[in-house]
Amino acid sequence: MSVLAEETVAIAAALGRHARAGRNLRWTVIAWYAEAGRPVLPGQLAVPEPPWPAAREALVWAMRRSTAHRLVVAARTAAAAGEAEQDAFYTEAGRMMGRGHTGPVHPDALRRVLEDPAAELDDQGEDRRRRRGAVSLAAAAVMGAGEVGGEALVDALATLTPGVDWNDVAANARTAEEAGELDG
Question: Which of 14-18, 53-57, 92-96, 135-139 has the lowest mean pLDDT?
Fold first, then answer.
């Protein structure tokens, strides 16, 4: 009588949980990879990691499909092409970021709805700020912080990561901008 190794059973179970008809196998590998990193619950088998080359290829594939990656590629292309292309980058980036959900609702907007059940969850302004923040951050990362300016850069960081105290960063950005060292 043959018996499957526990590791084989755990891998088969993980693949069974994540594979779907018509779903790209790379998404399944990413889900398997994420599950392998979770703590093991009592009475369950530890899920071993998928082979690294398969996990790496799936992660790179997913990253290249992301809006964030396309935004950085567009910024790099614009930075290498010159000033006219840099201006066109903002138009293209606005179009690129104008689609889809930009992340979780801002905690302040959610708090308003929880405190007042009659209030509506209108997070359009925050959504627009997040989109502009992502564009500013990509432009600053590729073309230099001076491209967007210190205030816009810190505003983008604060919008994309609420709850962090950005006052010291804002003061440092102002000082660097006044000294002409913001790009550095």
Answer: 92-96
CA distances from 53 to 7, 13, 29, 30, 156 (A): 19, 21, 11, 12, 35
Are 61 and 71 within one domain?
Answer: no
Domain extent, residue 109, equals 67-178
38-70 b/e (C-beta count within 10 Å ≥ 16 → b): eeeeeeeeebeebeeebbeebeeeeeeeeeeeb
Last residue of a domain, one of 40, 65, 90: 65
pTM here is 0.52
